[in-house]
Amino acid sequence: MSKAGFKTAGRQPRRFSRHPLAAGWAGCSLVFALAAFVLGMAEEAGLPGRRGTGKPLSRWIGKMLLGILAATAFAGIFNVADAVPSTYIWFAFTSVGLLLLTFTGPVQLLLVVLLSLSITCSVTGVFLQRLLGWICRQAVFSAGLLASGLAAMKPESGGSGRYWLLLEPDRATDTEPGANQAATWTYGGVDSYRKEFTAASSLPTPAVDGSDLLAAWSPARRAFFGFGPTQLPLNGRVWMPEGEGPFPLVLAVHGNHPATEASDRGLAYLGQLLAARGYICASIDQNFLNTLPNDELYTLEQLKREIGLRGRLILEHLGLWQHWNESEEHRLCGTIDLSRIALIGHGRGSAAVIAAALQNYVSRKAAHEAATCFEIASVVSLAGTDADWRQEGTALEEADFSFLALQGSEDMEVSPLWVERQYRRIGSSAEHAGCKALINIQGADHSSFNTVWGRPDGQRRLAAKRLLSPARQQQAAAVFISAFLDATLRGEDSARRVFRDSGKTRQRLPGFRYSCRSEGFTETNN
């Protein structure tokens, strides 16, 4: 064995040291490796509420080993072409592999992030090494500066990616119950993964088998939650008005967010508001279908095609409420008006409520047993995704429910065109007798409709002056949602005028700027 590298019989191998790196290539490699290492360590240490096994350092060492093995293999392949120095290839592929294990989100977003980081780090390395060579010679000093700068940042996780912020996320402070508090209680599976749903005061519920609608349920997901797709829990938190009823029923569904945080709690402000206005509201738990930030990346087994299951679980929740309402010995018997049901969804939850409504419509259309059908009259989408959900050939054009969509002008998670397409399609057939409205709220973002999510949108620093505070954004949502439900479930003309006369709304929301498109909000003489 020589000092230059390893020898093999019959062929002189390509050695990493045979062609020493030029100044530019050295800079590329060092900056690439430093960025991947520090970003990954910060992500492991800063992930909020993580419940995975192992310490951040041990998990990161495991990732590094995987990245090094993959990089060595790819470097050997590219080395045959002799296009670029092997050392740079080794550094680059190791860094890309580590970053793949660091960031979560859709494949398209991952490709954009990796390509951007690759180009930026490489160009930056060339610039620093050629023009500021002393930085590379003092690598320890440079790494210290980089680590110190990143330590001041806090990683926040969003629905489809991760962004680096310089400030703590704002939290809503005006969602505490007011003077007219409603009764609050929970229901859930006896073996639920969250203690709040297994308390002695919580109503017990059966598990649901959803294995026929799921493409994958990884071992990491099973270990994290403690159950598989055949034992999905029906968990919910309820806000119920005082009195005998019967009261209209509203189910609220959160969107996709790291499963380490309880997203269903973030819709409590809507539950409190609606209960005070005479609606039963339940925020249901579907966190077990949300993203596990890191664990599943080791097996590349994230859930697929779960929107249909999210919709079916909503119908299973409605079945619980129907059973309670019809059971003579149950404390809720006769208190629920099942002829007036509304569904509210945020983010991916909006696709779920539309899926549930269409599944329900198919059951009614096929004249299934009444026990499988519900009177879903209204659907609300908050910063919704356009899943274009089709159930047995039934599309949104045939929808038989009223529809409200709220979209923020500063939403960087979903495209406003998705909501526009959704609005145009829903109920576009001649038989549709409901009403619909599309509201674009100036300054609203994606995440602040949920008080748990904080504000991880990427425009935090770019458009801070244009953003509404989370409290103001939730106030706007409360006004439009309560008016929509009063209009569609109770037929109140004063509420219908909110969507016909902008002046009426501006009295309730002074200082807000928004646009409104609506159809079907005519006078009913109520």
From TrEMBL:
Instruction: Enumerate the InterPro entries for this protein.
Output: AB_hydrolase_fold
Identify the SUPFAM superfamilies for this entry.
Answer: alpha/beta-Hydrolases
Q: Which UniProt keywords apply?
A: Membrane, Transmembrane, Transmembrane helix
**Entry superkingdom:** Bacteria
**Listed Gene3D superfamilies:** alpha/beta hydrolase
Q: Which residue ranges traverse the bilayer? A: 21-40, 60-80, 87-103
Q: Does the keyword Transmembrane apply?
A: yes
- What protein am I looking at? Alpha/beta hydrolase
